[in-house]
Amino acid sequence: MGTVAEIIAEVRARGDAALLDYTARFDGVRLKAAELRVDGAALRESAARVDESVLAALRASIRNIRAFHERERAEGWEIETGRGVRLGQRVTPVESAGLYVPGGTASYPSSVVMNVVPAQVAGVGRIVVVTPPRTLAETPAVAAALVELGIEEIYTVGGAQAVAALAYGTETVPRVDKITGPGNRYVAAAKKLVFGAVGIDSIAGPSEVVILADETARADFVAADLLAQAEHGEDASAVLVTTSDELARRVVEEVARQARTLPRQKIVWRSLADYGAIFVVADIEEACAIVNELAPEHLEIIVRDEETAAARVRHAGAIFFGPYAPEAVGDYFAGPNHVLPTGGASRFSSALGVGDFQRRTSMIRYTREELKESGRMIAALAGAEGLDAHARSALIRMEE
Question: 47 and 151 share a domain?
């Protein structure tokens, strides 16, 4: 954390010069200040290298995700309570948002879509993207996602220094009101440190899935979904909670069989060894108690009575019902956001959504008649708190 704090302080003090120094030091790329902003032609050139089948899938995904998030958008409202008093809320978008797009193996076009679409639906006027220097050249699908979403303001800077630039601004990179997007532990630490100067989405931890299954579940389906989670990284967590000894046995066999063909099998086996588990329980009630204790990011329910089981679950970031709703459906295509609370945070937080990019402003319109009616009660409450000037501000208006 100390190193991250130093990076943030340097960016605040030296602006672009610090960004250029850290980019040379951490990414091995020497840039000039004029090269920090990504050229539109270079972006489109990279995007043009995407396979047509990927581009078609990306476009369909964007349509689905946008349609879902359109339903989330909150609207302002107003009520009249009597004697001309009107109370309400005005809902407005944040003015600007910055999206961090990681590089390397964690550079996912799906994450770009999941972060940008709710900001666009909310009506955010300025959306800025930061990403390490090699990301767009090495990951054409990310470039294609940005082009399809109409994002034009992109800066080629990554790491904690990029977060600092978004939080405080430099000569080239603008300060934003909210920062979202995944990143490594340095990015997460930077987001935590700049929170307060700027809003953030969350501090995301390793990805998780819990599969709640009974004897009706297919072992090959369950194993495939556990492996899909485990390949995220060595710290990913894949857990099966089942009422069936036989299913548990067959899933272990299927995991071993399917893992042999995976390119990332070393990562998978490390993940399963350190963070994988199978719980065999007596009944669905006990299974749901375990689920609620874990409060997972993703929960798949593959049991005979899915609705009854789901009704007993209080803590989960997203719930996938039945054998034909694998986590991958939500990760890429269905529509709900895949930026979900991890590490048990689903007990108190929710998926990234349109509301994360909106503000609610209370609106109060009072009349002389109503204040004369309620002024003494307001003064009594203020007096009970020892705030005499508050009381006087109500009472003085009753003297007219």
Answer: yes
